[in-house]
Amino acid sequence: MGRAVAGRPTGRHGGGARSPGRVAGRAAAPRGPERPAPTDDDVETDTHLASDWRVPDVEEERSPAADGDPGWLLGDDDRRTAPDDHDAVTELLAHDGPARRRRRYLWPGIAALLVLALVGGVFFARDLIGVFFPPDYEGPGTGRVVVEVADGASTSAIGEELARADVVASARAFGDAAEDDPNGRAIQPGFYELRRQMSAAGAVEALLDPASRVGRLEIRSGTQLDDTVGAGDAVVPGTLSLISRATCTVDEAGAERCASVDDLRAAMATADPAELGVPSWALEGVRRAEPNRRLEGLLAPGTYDLRPGIGAREALEQVLRESVPRLEAGGLVREAEARGVEPYDALIIGSLAEREGVQADFGKVAQVIYNRLAIPMRLQFDSTVNYPLDRQTLLTSPYDRATPGPYNTYLNFGLTPTPIGAVSSEALAAALDPTPGPWTYFVKCQPDGTSCFAVTVEEHDANRRLAQARGAY
Asked: What GO terms fall under cellular component here (predicted)?
């Protein structure tokens, strides 16, 4: 029997102590021919041989953490390929770096998009609110501002003009207020003095109030350039006074500024008539007239809207520019030429008929004028004597009739140098197409102002007695 060697089996099942590298339960090596018992010198050699008996494909399982290997965090593949702990962690951070950078650049973009979305939402919400609840001021407003409502302007156009002038907060608010007012569509063109930052409803109410109108003047037929004295010594404003009043404006401090009557007279007397807007058919007569009367009769009856604060010359130019088409609307130039009379003379005849008779008699009065001019015979109209005296009455005194002057038709033959007042379209039409008849005399014989016409002096004297009996004058 051989001797037992440390770390080596002594039998089939190996009852001796295990070698440090042995795995429990491993089968013993097959028995071979018996070998001689080893000597003490062989023990060291056998020990090395015993270590070589390990099966090469069987390894003892150990926990990586037990060996202090950080590679267990990376997995088996990374642990085997990582050269050491430091390199493995470095590689992990290196792989993670680009992702971190992408996330770092991505978040500001997302934040910017969120801000834009928020701002857009705010504006959208504001616009949406503005559709249903348009901005509007509260209260009566402050200060003064003049705005113009153009002829034919729609409600929306008026609202936009008011919003530009800061009268209302929005055109939409004004439109809604105008729709709510039963008279909201009855706003007339012209200039209005309003307040800034008024409520839309207040602006509509102010535009419907005649007291808010500024810059408007109305020239009535027969009105002279100068103020006149009427019945009961009442002063009737002349055209120049009406224009002056229309130009007045009040500044923020409450001071009033106007183009005065004297300013208007100076502009009329010094400006070149053609540059002022006098039509070619009237230039000769206008240049021949006295400077302070040269525009008489050329400023037609009707309404005019002047911007408050306008200058004297500009005001005259505007009124004259708008008057000429009104005078020519009935074919003044064409009809005058057809009758063989100058258009300016027809205007003078129309003004005389306007002052001497009522509308129903315009045609007959105009015919009397043509008949007397044809004879020739002095017109002998009291209205022409009173014209330079700025009186509207028909009666004259012997002294007045005997006083020389270019407008005294008791002394002079022919027509007056200029018209003697504003000429209505009816009087002008009568001058262009008078009522045919042989009359040379007429006198107011009815309380309603109508006249009785006569051919002879005897008939005329009879009509005068009839008029006195009726209390016509």
From this structure: plasma membrane
| Residue 93 half-sphere exposure toward CB, CA atoms < 13 A | 6
Q: Distance of alpha carbon 374 from its chain centroid, rounded?
A: 59
What is the spatial distance between Cα 384 and Cα 406, in angstroms, rounded to a whole number? 9
pLDDT at position 118: 75
pTM for the whole thing? Answer: 0.71
Binned at pLDDT 50, 70 and 90, residue 131 comes out as: low
Could you tell me how many helices (H) and strands (E) the chain has, helices first?
18, 11
- The residue type of 439 is W
Angle of helix 343-356 relative to helix 425-432, nearest 10 degrees, comes to 120
Q: Which residues pair with 191 in a beta bridge?
A: 148, 214
State the DSSP H helix or E strand holding residue 453, giving kind and residue range, or none if neither. Answer: strand 451-454
DSSP state of 378: -
Q: Under DSSP, is residue 443 helix (H, G, I), strand (E, B) or coil?
A: strand
| CA dist., res. 186 & res. 237, Å (int) | 29
Q: Are 295 and 286 in contact, with CB atoms under 8 Å apart? A: yes
Query: Shortest CA distance to 313 belongs to which of 272, 285, 344?
Result: 272
Question: At 92, is the secondary structure helix, strand, or coil?
Answer: helix
Whether 50 has a pLDDT exceeding 50, the answer reads: no
Question: Which domains are assigned to the chain?
Answer: 142-214 (3.30.1490.480), 219-437 (no CATH)
Q: How far apart are CA 9 and CA 2, in angstroms?
A: 11
Alpha-carbon distance 162 to 178, whole Å? 13
Cα 327 from Cα 468, distance rounded (Å): 37
* 43-77 burial code (b ≥16 CB/10 A, e <16): eeeeeeebeeeeeeeeeeeeeeeeeebebeebeee
3-state secondary structure string, 189-242? CEEEEEEECCCHHHHHHHHCCHHHEECEEEECCCCCCCCEECHHHCEECCHHHH
Strands (E), 220-308: 228-229, 235-236, 249-250, 256-257, 302-305
Cα–Cα distance, 63 to 66 (Å, whole number)? 5
Q: Which residues neighbour 116 within 8 Å (Cβ) at sequence distance 6 or greater?
A: none
Q: Average pLDDT, whole number, for the chain?
A: 83
**Beta-carbon neighbour count of residue 445 at 10 Å?**
21
Cβ-based burial of 259 (10 A; exposed 0-12, middle 13-18, buried ≥19): buried
Q: How far apart are alpha carbons 113 and 123 in whole angstroms?
A: 15
